Amino acid sequence: MNRIFSFGLFFWLLSSSLLGQSLGLSYQAVVRDANGAILTNASIPVRFVIHEGNSTGTVVYDETHTPTTNAYGLVNLVIGDGSPTQGTWSQLDWGSGPYFLHVFLGGEDMGVQRLESVPFAKVATDMQLHQLTDVSLSLAAPGEVLKWDGSQWAPATDQVADSDADPANELQTLSLSGNTLSITNGNSVSLPAGTSYTGGTGISISGSTITNTAPDQTVSLAGSGATSVTGTYPNFTISSTDNVNDADADASNEIQSLSLSGNTLSLSLGGGSVNLSSFGSPWSSSGSNLFYNSGNVGIGDNSPAATLTVGNGDKFQVHGAEGDVIFTDDQASIRFANASGATQPMIQMFTSGTNNATRMLVGHSPSFPSWGIRYNDTSDAFTWIGANVPVLHVQLAGQQRVGIGNESPEAKLHVSTNSAMGFGQLKLTETQFDYARITMNNDIHNNFWDIAARTDTNLNNAQFNIYHSNGGDIFSIRATGRVGINDASPSFPLDVTGNGETRTINAKNTLPATNTSSFNYGVIANLSQSPHTGFPRLFNIYGFSNDPDSYLSYGVYGFADNASNFNYGVYGLSPVSNGYAGYFSGNVYSTGSYLPSDAALKSYIQPLTNGLQTVLSLKPRRYEYDTRKYEFMHLPEGEQYGFVAQEVEQLLPALTRHTFQAYDKPLSDTPEGQGLEFKAVNYIGLIPFMVAGMQEQQEIIEQQAQHIQTQDQKILDLEARLQAIESLLGQ
Q: For the chain, which has fewer Cβ within 10 Å, the N-terminal or C-terminal residue?
């Protein structure tokens, strides 16, 4: 399974199923692999853990899911609907909190975050009535209801006895005391004396008490005299007079009055009304204003659906140099029907033509006419301006370019402004802990390039990448100053992965002709170390080659050719006596070698004596290196010939040196753990002694030859004398 690289939390929502299960938390995620590619149609195990109190607090709930990502790498889950392994979701007390959500995706810990917004809908489903702050905590008796007492809701009776809480059908009782007729929870009236009363259907008269035995029926009083009933059931008033001032109780000759409301003419005391709209204009006037408030007005429309409805044809036209349409309601809007006609504009700027004058379409106000949206008909472009300065310019024709901060864009998107550190011409903000990206491709191929950047307080996580959909992260820069080529996690200032290329780094340069002296470098490395107490190792160039199957393997290969003056394939400099301009662990091959020997570079030049004695004192040896014990030094194998440094040191200490070979990786933080100290011999320094020895030997040989020649002459002389003596003796 691919390693999960990033996880995006998009939103929190309360989720409730239609079957009435307990509420859960909706959770949505985007799943990517280690290279940032989206994992589609993949089964990903997910685990949710709820901690109480803090991020490492008591685990009160634990559940697992096994969703499958969709074609966009999304998974949609409901926390609470998974397979619980600990705790019960419906029994969580969300009001006690705080709670923390711990997410595991694909077996990897994705971190813990606090549930900042407590799921209040879940809390509300478990809330008790007494938990409301404006409800009385006193216990209610059976049958009581909550009533507002002016400061809180408190238990109380509904003051009815009809077995329900509807105040519109309460039971009431009529009573008669003398000539006073009363109704419970109502008022009373004085009845004319000497009148006999008979109870009708549903009315019972017993002594001075009148009872309505059918509360929902109409109550009427029979007898002489005028009465009137006012109010609404059940609180009504029965009056014994006719409430007019015509000085009698005869209802047939009452004084009535006329009243006019709009177009309605009414007669008092139930005399009826008539509509006068057909006798005049429906419009009313107030001073110089004309108005109509009773319905909708239609112009070219017999069934107006709005306050003002306009039929076919041009709807509205303003003549004159100036004309305004003003909405005084700050909630006013202009709406168009949702109908067909995609090519029919809802608002047209001009009646005709292609070169109309540039106009402001929308302006801030009469006091700020140069703040708004302007249209140039000649160039077919909209421009958003502020203080007459272009903010956004959109070309509808021609090259169809967009300019931000300019009206002459030179590309599809052209941004012009003065930038500052952290305030660039363009800013991309990623809403999750992921990379902000710019994606580039074409219509021919599906592969693409991404320029991506991510910020973080941990500089190792703050990174800039150039990514290709087929090649991965090709160029990576970390905020720590490390750069990787084909390496998304560089461990050094420059990490280069060759990916099988024959040349990992190829530096080429052609310099122009010049008559001045200059130093030119293909590669230059310069390391320095501040005063220290540790064990630093400074390698300006470190070459390492370890491939047993290779035909040729070079740690460092230098080549210089075609120089009119001097060329250097590899140039090394060590300004200290105990350093090395070049240090090679292994065989070194050179087609030529030179050492500085100019007399101008030397002082105290003296003849070298005792060369022969020195050579005769040297002890040539044959030996083999212990390559197993000192494998890291890459010593040559097989029989070797040379000298032992300790033996040479006794004779020629200046030709031996105490040196150091660093381990590939330190074994400990001690001097002994850094590498191996050993003695080395300057074999080239032995050559002068060998030459001096040969010269001294040659001088001895020449002296001996001269001596032999003298002896030979003496022998010849002796032989001649001997022959002369023998001749004399023979005679």
A: C
Q: What is the CATH number of the domain that holds 61?
A: 2.60.40
With contact defined as beta carbons under 8 Å apart, do 485 and 465 qualify? Answer: no
Tens digit of pLDDT for each residue in 538-559? 666 766 666 666 556 666 777 6
Q: Which residue has the tokens 């409901």?
A: 78
- The pLDDT tens digits for 488-544 are 999 888 888 888 887 778 777 777 777 766 666 677 776 666 776 566 666 667 666
51, 100 Cβ separation under 8 angstroms: yes
Sign of CA dihedral 670, 673, 675, 681: positive
Classify residue 429: in a domain, yes or no.
no
User: Residue 603: exposed, middle, or buried by beta-carbon count in 10 A (0-12, 13-18, 19+)?
Assistant: exposed
Least Cα distance to 583 among 519, 526, 528, 634 occurs for 634
Q: Pull the structure tokens for residue 385.
A: 């301006």
pTM (whole model) above 0.70:
no
Q: How far apart are CA 652 and CA 427, in angstroms?
A: 71
Q: Distance between CA atoms of 381 and 403, rounded to whole angstroms?
A: 11
Residue with the two structure tokens 């096994």: 66
Domain span at residue 52 reads 25-115
Q: How far is CA 318 from CA 47, 325, 666, in A?
A: 68, 9, 91
Distance of CA 492 to the CA centre of its chain: 27
Beta strands per DSSP E along 433-534? 436-440, 449-454, 463-468, 472-478, 483-485, 494-496
CA dist 112 and 9 (Å) reads: 12
**Is residue 456 in some structural domain?**
yes
Distance CA 611, CA 514 (A): 50
Q: Could you give the CA distance from residue 671 to residue 660 in angstroms, rounded to a whole number? A: 11
Does residue 85 register a pLDDT over 60?
A: yes
Answer yes or no: is pLDDT of 362 > 70.
yes
Q: Are 404 and 392 in contact (CB under 8 A)?
A: yes
Residue 142: both structure tokens together:
């059976």
Tally of domains within the chain: 5
CA angle 639, 643, 648 (to 5 degrees): 165
Highest mean pLDDT among 40-44, 158-162, 253-257: 40-44
CA 266/CA 515 separation, integer angstroms = 118
Task: Mark 691-711 as b/e (b = at least 16 C-beta within 10 Å).
Answer: ebbeebeeeeeeeeeeeeeee
Between CA 522 and CA 556 the distance in angstroms is 14
Within a domain: 209: no
